[in-house]
Amino acid sequence: GAVVSQHPSWVICKSGTSVKIECRSLDFQATTMFWYRQFPKQSLMLMATSNEGSKATYEQGVEKDKFLINHASLTLSTLTVTSAHPEDSSFYICSARARPSSQLAQYIYNEQFFGPGTRLTVL
Amino acid sequence: AQSVSQHNHHVILSEAASLELGCNYSYGGTVNLFWYVQYPGQHLQLLLKYFSGDPLVKGIKGFEAEFIKSKFSFNLRKPSVQWSDTAEYFCAVYGLGSGGGADGLTFGKGTHLIIQP
Fold first, then answer.
1. pLDDT tens per residue across span A35-46
2. Which of B43, B46, B51 to mutate against chain A (most A CBs within 10 Å)?
3. In contact, B19 and B78? CB cutoff 8 Å
4. CA spacing 20 to 30 A to B47: which of A47, B38, B83, B89?
5. How far apart are CA B19 and CA B21, in angstroms?
6. pLDDT tens across A104-113, in order?
């Protein structure tokens, strides 16, 4: 259980175009999803928190108009990189946190499940 | 806000050697702690986690970690490493009550572990 998928797994695009990345929780409902960015040989950096039905909260330094996040349902969040530039080339990883439930222990709520990542290359 | 420090950026060991990777965090409240592994070309996998209870937690593939609250540490250990343990290891922390709107995990910079046959 607790599988998170991302699509596409890799994408190459021209500078100036927009790219949409999908993150899906396959077997659980996720009220909160997170988007991270990982540069080569570096750690993951949180970009934004996406809550179902509300606006995303962005980390300092992340341009919300460039990285559009939509969390339209309890199982899907999308990240759109608008007007992509070569410096946006990176590995984008999403994670999902399960919906709180009286049937779930608190620890399950706090755990995040990671997707496999999307490698974006902007030419 | 919380922060995580991993002191060893690169570690090279021979097979069968013992491993200990350091992780210290900075946060004044209750924390959930995690170790993730990223094998070359693969995505993050959870090795183990600590939420509460026994501070010595056992994870997959023979890994364990000990939460020492007084030292704000959560070091990862394995008594005998294998060549297949070559990977990037990340320590991460979630501070309960730190949230507000953006409350994802805070990751350390990672430790690149190379196991020589």
1. 999 988 788 899
2. B43
3. yes
4. A47
5. 7
6. 455 455 678 8
